[in-house]
Amino acid sequence: MTGSGGRERRFSLGLDYGTNSVRALIVDVDSGGEIASSVFHYPGGEDGVLLDPKDPNLARQAPADYIEGFRQSVRAVLAKARRAKGFDPSRIVGIGVDATGSTPIPLARDGTPLAMTNRFRREKAAQAWLWKDHTSHAEAAEITDAVRKSGAPYLDRCGGTYSSEWFWAKILHCRRTSPDVFEAAFSWAELSDFVPAWLTGNRDPLTMARNICAAGHKAMYSDVWGGLPPADFLAGLDPALAGLRDRLYAKALTADRQAGRLSAGAAKGSGLPEGIPVAVGLLDAHAGAVGAGIRPGRLVKILGTSSCDMLVAPADSVPPDIPGICGIVPGSIVPGMYGIEAGQSAVGDIFNWFVSRLCPKEYSKGDPHANLSREAAKLKPGESGLIALDWNNGNRCVLADPLLSGLMMGQALSTSAPEIYRTLIEATAMGARVIIERLEEYGVRTGEVVCCGGIAEKNPLVMTIYADVLNRPIRTARSSQTCALGAAIFGAVAGGAYRSVEEASEKMTGPGRRGYRPDPRRASVYDRLYSIY
């Protein structure tokens, strides 16, 4: 079967490595039609996350789950795609990979994760340090203090504060709390770099492709000062970090470049032919922004366990330094533009916390989120007398403090579960408003808001409240799988189907499916509640 213009149909494969699962998506590169998808849930830990009951800040993952996730998800998606007319695995022109970050993995000299060696198989410090691991909050504060005392610009484009979610803080914490793991690690790689390296067979830590998204937003990388922070600065934190620097990377690449081609070893048993171009990786939220059709003036908000807010600016329009924002990096999100990232440390995680820990039995049958949302929708803004702070997992932006905690005020003996659930939604919406106001305070236009992710797709109440609290129209993205779609777009560009990400996005994305407009009366009430927040 041929596509438009009589050409044989061409496809790309997007792999989205999220917090709890990996999703595979096959897309028609000429129309953007989504042919098939599959999901593999990581088997390790609780919902794919290795936890420690003695330390709520710890969150790790088993690297072996990533490899098994590729095999299982790809086999499943190919089985589904074969039902589509004109599909054949040989017509996949490229593979794109996105992943959570910062999720660094300690590696042996040959690129094997230490957690996959007999010595460290059961050692949590040898696993992947998931993005939401906050055990390194003290090290993050130390890095921030060291940068400020040095007068160096390493955090100027990253909001001025280093995060416990980021690369160097986690590695420094490993050095201090698990020195045996640190000493055994030849190098470290972000999950978004490890997967392309494993797929292409270029697992040498010194030569594997490293992506600008993770490097620029999480590891204080910039071409202005020659890449990663210089050895003398790192030595001031710990001499061992200075030694590690030379075993990391000198240059980070944009995700429209090829990391290599699918190796025979990785292709074996997957159903894919070897030799398919594999794009350099990128962060999952950045891929989601591309899958939602990001462009200057359009803020894309990924709503999942946490949230990420993304904007892009033309290369000739240099954004100012913005305190409390996660990064302003040339080449991230869309190559050739400045990528701007902010976000909240918990959104869906807050809703899930309430449902899993505190939800009354009468709302737990079936889908408790749907049950609570249905009842919460009957309430008016301010009716419950409640207001909350959304800092249950700390505050990523704009306070950049992982030790902050959630708070709810105004409870009475009559307070109901739907009232609390609605208030938690309102709190996350107000946290989103803080971020937008900070961006606009520094001259970054955020006119149009597009939301994507499972919450945006499944919960109209959340979108309605967000529109009212933000007091601006918002809409959901066309695709319900924007991260995987964005990865597929980068795969198509790396595979030569398009010359640029903008050209590919024009063909492979489209207008949103559903819009929400603010109600003036509700927005007025939220303005008053927001002043209290």
Q: What do these coordinates show?
A:
With 533 residues, the protein is an alpha+beta fold. Helix content is 35%, strand content 19%. It has 18 helices and 21 strands. The protein has a seven-stranded mixed beta sheet with strand order 15-16-14-13-19-20-21, with helices on both faces. Strand 1 and strand 2 (21-28) form a beta hairpin. Helix 10 packs across helix 16 (482-494) and helix 12 (368-376) packs across helix 13 (417-441). The termini are far apart. The model has no long low-confidence stretch (mean pLDDT 95).
Based on the model shown, name its key terms.
533 residues; 35% helix; seven-stranded mixed sheet; alpha+beta; 18 helices; five-stranded mixed sheet; single chain
The largest pleated sheet is described as:
7 strands, mixed
Secondary-structure-based class equals alpha+beta
Give the radius of gyration: 22 Å
> Order of strands across the biggest sheet?
15-16-14-13-19-20-21
Average pLDDT confidence is 95
- The outline comes out as globular
Count of β-strands: 21
Beta-strand residue fraction: 15-25%
How many angstroms separate the termini?
A: 57 Å
Helical fraction: 25-40%
Secondary-structure map with pairings?
Layout: E1 11-17, E2 21-28, E3 34-41, E4 50-52, E5 55-61, H1 63-81, E6 92-99, E7 104-107, E8 128-129, H2 137-150, H3 167-177, H4 179-184, E9 187-190, H5 191-200, H6 212-218, H7 231-237, H8 239-245, E10 258-261, H9 264-267, E11 277-279, E12 282-283, H10 284-291, E13 298-303, E14 307-314, E15 327-330, E16 337-344, H11 348-357, H12 368-376, E17 387-389, E18 407-409, H13 417-441, E19 448-452, H14 454-458, H15 460-470, E20 474-476, H16 482-494, H17 501-508, E21 515-516, H18 520-532
